[in-house]
Amino acid sequence: NSHLSYRKYEDDEYKIVKMDKKTIGALFNDPFYIGTYKYGNNIVNLCDIYNFMPLFTPDEYIALSRNIANNFKEEFIGRSTSAKRLDFGLLREKVICDYCSKIMVFQRTKLTKGKNAGSYMLSFYCRNKDCIRHNEAEAMKQYGKKISTGIRAKYVTAGIEWTIRHCTKQNKKAYELYIGRLRQKLAVDMGIAKRKLKEARNELKRQEDMYAKYQNLQLTSPNDYKKHHNGKLEEHQNLINVYSTSINYLNNEINKLNEPLPTPKQFVELIQSYLLILQNTNDLLEEDAIYQEVVLNLRAGDNIVSVITLNPPYDLMADLSKVSTGRGERTRTSGLRVPNAAR
After folding, report:
1. What pLDDT shows up at residue 88?
2. Are residues 296 and 268 in contact, defined by beta-carbon separation less than 8 angstroms?
3. How many alpha carbons lie under 13 Å from residue 74 in its C-beta half-sphere?
4. What are the DSSP E strand ranges found in 72-167?
């Protein structure tokens, strides 16, 4: 609608860009738009280093990354929502094989037999063919049994839930880290919301002016309007409704962003609320959002989780008096060894 145009050479005529949904999805797939700059294996958060204002929020970027940019708000015909969410996966690049220290990949397997036929089994699989998981003879020699090539997701998530349950230690530094990070995120989200609100208000005024222009033309020259501009009033009225709705939504978002920050007590309660969500949700995306927030990485063995390393500030809140540390040489300062009771 903005009639974006381009030309290859200075003397060329401008051409209108054909911005279809696929093009837009590919364009905004670049993480630079949320302030993340990646060069090789190096990743930098531009919002931390510079006064960088992202184009949209990380949540919006994740939504685009789920391949819904191709259909936006149109009715989706094809894979079911649950299947799309399964494709999205859990704990991306956070599950490490305990035998070869390589990243394990998320996979889903559709069950065809038994009472659960039609549902999916979720697991993490080690693709490293040099790993002992794929060498039955060596596994029998070292461990006296064949080792599974993967680990069921239910064992991984049970270990995480057990660890979160023990994040009850009231730590002042942990609270300060959380509030500092929250303030930074709120500042970015507020900047984005205010910019979008300004743009929506400007566009609303433009659409109202265009509506008034065509309304006047319809009254003064009805034949010309019908011949050359028929339907323009309805088009601009629809856009007025769209931008009015956007303005109301953004005002509500700004009001939410202005709400008071959590107190230390509310911070501890927030962490415990993660457990309630994990125990009651059937939404993989909602579940994964908590895992991404709390877990840095974890090491997975043969259907057991050995070490879970938490993100700051949650690593400072684990009550170590209630946590079994297991073999010290395998446990890092921020890592918690999950006891057998949680497996």
Report:
1. 59
2. no
3. 9
4. 95-97, 105-110, 120-125, 150-152
Which two structure tokens, joined as six digits, stand for 35? 């302030």
Separation CA 109–CA 118 (nearest Å): 10
Which residue's entry shows tokens 């969500």? 277
**Over the stretch 75-89, which tens digit does the pLDDT of each residue have?**
434 444 444 455 557
Percentage of the chain beyond pLDDT 70 is 84
Q: Which of helix, strand or coil describes residue 333?
A: coil
**Cα 30–34–35 angle (5° rounding)?**
100
Helix or strand run (H / E) with residue 174: helix 172-220
Average of pLDDT values for 249-253?
92
What pLDDT is stored for residue 335 in this prediction?
58
34 CB-near residues (< 8 Å, 6+ apart): 54, 55, 56, 57, 58, 60, 61
pLDDT at 189 over 90: no
Secondary element (H or E) of residue 234:
helix 232-257
* Chain length of the chain: 343
- Three-class SS state of 340: helix
* Distance (Å, whole) CA 23 – CA 16: 14
Q: pTM for this structure?
A: 0.61
The token duo for 197 is 């609100």
Contact between 189 and 181 under an 8 Å Cβ cutoff? The reply is no
